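Thread: Modeling a multi-component assembly for a lab meeting

Hi all, long-time lurker, first post. My supervisor asked me to bring a structural picture of a complex we are working on to next week's group meeting, and I have zero experience with this. I have the sequence lines for every component (254 residues in total). Could someone generate the structure of the whole assembly? Inputs are pasted exactly as I received them:
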Amino acid sequence: MIQTRADTKPGEGTGLWFVKILLGLFIIVLLLVHLIVNHYVGEGALLTWQNVVDYFSNPWIVFMEITFLFVVVSHSLIGMRSIILDLNPARGTMKIIDWFLIILGTGSIIYGIWLALKIASFGG
Amino acid sequence: MVTDTNKPAPANWWRWFDPRQRDIGTWAFILNRITAIGLTIYLFLHLVVLYQLSQGPDAYDGFLELAKSPIIVIGELLVVIAAIYHGLNGIRIGLTTFTDTSPFQRAIFYVFTFITIVGSLIFAVRMFTA
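Re: Modeling a multi-component assembly
Sure thing. I ran the full set together rather than chain by chain. Output:
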Protein backbone atom coordinates (compact mmCIF):
# COMPACT_ATOMS: atom_id res chain seq x y z
CA MET A 1 0.00 0.00 0.00
CA ILE A 2 1.72 3.22 -1.12
CA GLN A 3 0.21 6.51 -0.08
CA THR A 4 1.29 9.07 -2.62
CA ARG A 5 -2.09 10.78 -2.89
CA ALA A 6 -4.69 11.73 -0.29
CA ASP A 7 -7.68 10.02 -1.90
CA THR A 8 -11.16 9.58 -0.49
CA LYS A 9 -12.22 6.11 0.67
CA PRO A 10 -15.56 4.28 0.98
CA GLY A 11 -17.56 5.87 3.81
CA GLU A 12 -15.62 9.14 3.64
CA GLY A 13 -17.37 11.69 1.45
CA THR A 14 -15.46 14.18 -0.68
CA GLY A 15 -16.58 17.03 1.61
CA LEU A 16 -15.17 15.43 4.78
CA TRP A 17 -11.99 14.43 2.94
CA PHE A 18 -11.48 18.00 1.69
CA VAL A 19 -12.14 19.45 5.17
CA LYS A 20 -9.48 17.08 6.59
CA ILE A 21 -6.90 18.22 4.01
CA LEU A 22 -7.79 21.91 4.42
CA LEU A 23 -7.61 21.73 8.23
CA GLY A 24 -4.28 19.90 7.97
CA LEU A 25 -2.74 22.73 5.95
CA PHE A 26 -4.19 25.31 8.35
CA ILE A 27 -2.77 23.40 11.34
CA ILE A 28 0.78 23.52 9.96
CA VAL A 29 0.90 27.32 10.35
CA LEU A 30 -0.80 27.36 13.77
CA LEU A 31 1.23 24.39 15.02
CA LEU A 32 4.48 26.12 14.15
CA VAL A 33 3.50 29.17 16.23
CA HIS A 34 2.23 26.93 19.07
CA LEU A 35 5.41 24.79 19.19
CA ILE A 36 7.77 27.76 19.09
CA VAL A 37 5.91 29.73 21.77
CA ASN A 38 5.20 26.81 24.10
CA HIS A 39 8.25 24.58 23.64
CA TYR A 40 11.04 26.92 22.54
CA VAL A 41 10.63 30.44 23.95
CA GLY A 42 10.00 29.90 27.68
CA GLU A 43 12.60 29.24 30.38
CA GLY A 44 13.24 25.48 30.35
CA ALA A 45 11.29 25.54 27.08
CA LEU A 46 8.10 25.66 29.18
CA LEU A 47 5.81 28.58 30.02
CA THR A 48 4.98 29.31 33.65
CA TRP A 49 1.41 30.07 34.72
CA GLN A 50 2.17 33.83 34.60
CA ASN A 51 3.77 33.46 31.13
CA VAL A 52 0.62 31.72 29.86
CA VAL A 53 -1.68 34.37 31.39
CA ASP A 54 0.43 37.16 29.86
CA TYR A 55 0.37 35.36 26.50
CA PHE A 56 -3.43 35.02 26.67
CA SER A 57 -3.87 38.70 27.59
CA ASN A 58 -3.83 39.46 23.86
CA PRO A 59 -7.35 38.78 22.46
CA TRP A 60 -5.86 37.79 19.09
CA ILE A 61 -3.85 35.06 20.80
CA VAL A 62 -7.03 33.77 22.49
CA PHE A 63 -8.73 33.76 19.08
CA MET A 64 -5.74 32.00 17.47
CA GLU A 65 -5.51 29.33 20.20
CA ILE A 66 -9.27 28.63 20.05
CA THR A 67 -9.02 28.38 16.26
CA PHE A 68 -6.04 26.04 16.66
CA LEU A 69 -8.04 23.93 19.15
CA PHE A 70 -10.99 23.69 16.74
CA VAL A 71 -8.91 22.70 13.70
CA VAL A 72 -6.62 20.29 15.56
CA VAL A 73 -9.48 18.45 17.29
CA SER A 74 -11.48 18.26 14.04
CA HIS A 75 -8.48 17.13 11.98
CA SER A 76 -7.42 14.49 14.51
CA LEU A 77 -10.88 12.98 14.92
CA ILE A 78 -11.64 12.98 11.17
CA GLY A 79 -8.20 11.37 10.76
CA MET A 80 -8.99 8.72 13.37
CA ARG A 81 -12.27 8.03 11.58
CA SER A 82 -10.32 7.63 8.35
CA ILE A 83 -7.96 5.11 9.99
CA ILE A 84 -10.89 3.16 11.46
CA LEU A 85 -12.60 3.11 8.04
CA ASP A 86 -9.54 1.31 6.64
CA LEU A 87 -10.49 -1.63 8.87
CA ASN A 88 -13.83 -2.06 7.06
CA PRO A 89 -15.97 -1.95 10.23
CA ALA A 90 -19.65 -2.95 10.08
CA ARG A 91 -22.05 -0.11 9.21
CA GLY A 92 -23.70 -0.23 12.66
CA THR A 93 -20.33 -0.12 14.41
CA MET A 94 -19.29 2.86 12.30
CA LYS A 95 -22.47 4.71 13.27
CA ILE A 96 -21.64 4.26 16.98
CA ILE A 97 -18.04 5.36 16.37
CA ASP A 98 -19.26 8.44 14.47
CA TRP A 99 -21.43 9.52 17.39
CA PHE A 100 -18.62 8.87 19.84
CA LEU A 101 -16.24 11.03 17.79
CA ILE A 102 -18.82 13.83 17.41
CA ILE A 103 -19.51 13.90 21.17
CA LEU A 104 -15.78 13.71 22.03
CA GLY A 105 -14.91 16.47 19.57
CA THR A 106 -17.74 18.79 20.57
CA GLY A 107 -17.06 18.25 24.27
CA SER A 108 -13.33 18.88 23.83
CA ILE A 109 -13.89 22.10 21.89
CA ILE A 110 -16.42 23.44 24.43
CA TYR A 111 -14.03 22.57 27.30
CA GLY A 112 -11.08 24.13 25.45
CA ILE A 113 -12.96 27.37 24.78
CA TRP A 114 -13.97 27.56 28.45
CA LEU A 115 -10.34 26.96 29.50
CA ALA A 116 -8.96 29.60 27.09
CA LEU A 117 -11.45 32.20 28.33
CA LYS A 118 -10.76 31.25 31.96
CA ILE A 119 -7.01 31.75 31.44
CA ALA A 120 -7.64 35.06 29.68
CA SER A 121 -9.82 36.20 32.60
CA PHE A 122 -6.87 35.86 35.03
CA GLY A 123 -5.16 38.65 33.13
CA GLY A 124 -7.92 41.03 34.14
CA MET B 1 -4.23 -6.05 -4.71
CA VAL B 2 -6.79 -6.77 -2.01
CA THR B 3 -7.65 -10.46 -1.73
CA ASP B 4 -9.75 -12.44 0.74
CA THR B 5 -6.61 -13.22 2.74
CA ASN B 6 -5.26 -9.67 3.06
CA LYS B 7 -8.55 -7.74 3.07
CA PRO B 8 -8.44 -5.12 5.85
CA ALA B 9 -10.50 -6.07 8.90
CA PRO B 10 -10.47 -5.16 12.61
CA ALA B 11 -8.65 -8.44 13.39
CA ASN B 12 -5.85 -7.55 10.94
CA TRP B 13 -5.10 -4.05 12.23
CA TRP B 14 -1.53 -5.00 13.15
CA ARG B 15 -0.68 -5.49 9.44
CA TRP B 16 -0.52 -1.69 9.07
CA PHE B 17 2.60 -1.77 11.21
CA ASP B 18 4.25 -4.83 9.67
CA PRO B 19 7.52 -3.41 8.25
CA ARG B 20 8.43 -6.48 6.13
CA GLN B 21 8.82 -6.02 2.36
CA ARG B 22 7.83 -2.36 2.45
CA ASP B 23 9.10 0.41 0.20
CA ILE B 24 9.75 4.04 1.14
CA GLY B 25 6.20 5.16 0.33
CA THR B 26 4.77 2.58 2.68
CA TRP B 27 7.23 3.49 5.42
CA ALA B 28 6.00 7.09 5.06
CA PHE B 29 2.44 5.79 5.35
CA ILE B 30 3.22 3.67 8.43
CA LEU B 31 5.00 6.59 10.13
CA ASN B 32 2.08 8.86 9.24
CA ARG B 33 -0.31 6.42 10.94
CA ILE B 34 1.84 5.98 14.05
CA THR B 35 2.36 9.74 14.47
CA ALA B 36 -1.38 10.41 13.85
CA ILE B 37 -2.43 7.99 16.59
CA GLY B 38 0.29 9.22 18.96
CA LEU B 39 -0.53 12.88 18.42
CA THR B 40 -4.26 12.27 18.91
CA ILE B 41 -3.65 10.48 22.24
CA TYR B 42 -1.29 13.30 23.27
CA LEU B 43 -3.80 15.98 22.26
CA PHE B 44 -6.46 14.71 24.65
CA LEU B 45 -3.96 14.08 27.48
CA HIS B 46 -2.66 17.62 26.89
CA LEU B 47 -6.18 19.08 27.18
CA VAL B 48 -6.77 17.18 30.44
CA VAL B 49 -3.44 18.30 31.94
CA LEU B 50 -4.02 21.95 30.96
CA TYR B 51 -6.98 21.98 33.37
CA GLN B 52 -4.30 22.82 35.98
CA LEU B 53 -4.10 26.30 34.41
CA SER B 54 -7.62 27.06 35.61
CA GLN B 55 -6.58 26.17 39.19
CA GLY B 56 -4.07 29.01 39.53
CA PRO B 57 -0.28 29.39 39.64
CA ASP B 58 0.42 26.94 42.50
CA ALA B 59 -1.31 24.04 40.76
CA TYR B 60 0.17 24.69 37.31
CA ASP B 61 3.71 25.65 38.33
CA GLY B 62 3.80 22.62 40.64
CA PHE B 63 2.94 20.49 37.62
CA LEU B 64 5.72 22.20 35.61
CA GLU B 65 8.30 20.91 38.09
CA LEU B 66 7.15 17.38 37.24
CA ALA B 67 7.19 18.26 33.52
CA LYS B 68 10.90 19.15 33.75
CA SER B 69 11.84 15.56 34.63
CA PRO B 70 13.91 13.90 31.86
CA ILE B 71 11.31 11.23 31.07
CA ILE B 72 8.58 13.85 30.51
CA VAL B 73 10.98 16.01 28.43
CA ILE B 74 11.81 12.98 26.25
CA GLY B 75 8.07 12.36 25.85
CA GLU B 76 7.52 16.02 24.88
CA LEU B 77 10.38 15.80 22.39
CA LEU B 78 8.79 12.71 20.80
CA VAL B 79 5.58 14.73 20.42
CA VAL B 80 7.51 17.58 18.75
CA ILE B 81 9.25 15.11 16.38
CA ALA B 82 5.92 13.45 15.56
CA ALA B 83 4.30 16.84 14.94
CA ILE B 84 7.09 18.01 12.59
CA TYR B 85 7.10 14.69 10.68
CA HIS B 86 3.29 14.49 10.45
CA GLY B 87 3.02 18.11 9.28
CA LEU B 88 5.73 17.77 6.63
CA ASN B 89 4.36 14.42 5.43
CA GLY B 90 0.96 16.11 5.14
CA ILE B 91 2.54 18.75 2.90
CA ARG B 92 4.13 15.94 0.82
CA ILE B 93 0.76 14.20 0.41
CA GLY B 94 -0.88 17.56 -0.41
CA LEU B 95 1.78 18.31 -3.02
CA THR B 96 1.48 14.92 -4.73
CA THR B 97 -2.34 15.11 -4.61
CA PHE B 98 -2.87 18.62 -5.92
CA THR B 99 0.24 19.21 -8.05
CA ASP B 100 2.17 17.25 -10.68
CA THR B 101 4.91 16.19 -8.26
CA SER B 102 4.14 12.45 -7.93
CA PRO B 103 7.36 11.45 -9.78
CA PHE B 104 9.35 13.30 -7.12
CA GLN B 105 7.48 11.98 -4.06
CA ARG B 106 10.45 9.81 -3.02
CA ALA B 107 12.86 12.79 -3.16
CA ILE B 108 10.35 14.99 -1.33
CA PHE B 109 10.10 12.32 1.38
CA TYR B 110 13.90 12.30 1.85
CA VAL B 111 14.10 16.12 1.97
CA PHE B 112 11.25 16.35 4.49
CA THR B 113 12.79 13.57 6.60
CA PHE B 114 16.04 15.56 6.65
CA ILE B 115 14.12 18.71 7.73
CA THR B 116 12.38 16.64 10.44
CA ILE B 117 15.75 15.48 11.80
CA VAL B 118 17.26 18.99 11.76
CA GLY B 119 14.14 20.58 13.30
CA SER B 120 13.99 17.87 15.97
CA LEU B 121 17.64 18.41 16.87
CA ILE B 122 17.08 22.17 17.24
CA PHE B 123 14.14 21.56 19.59
CA ALA B 124 16.04 18.78 21.45
CA VAL B 125 19.01 21.07 22.16
CA ARG B 126 16.69 23.83 23.35
CA MET B 127 14.52 21.53 25.51
CA PHE B 128 17.47 19.81 27.21
CA THR B 129 19.68 22.85 27.71
CA ALA B 130 17.23 25.68 28.46
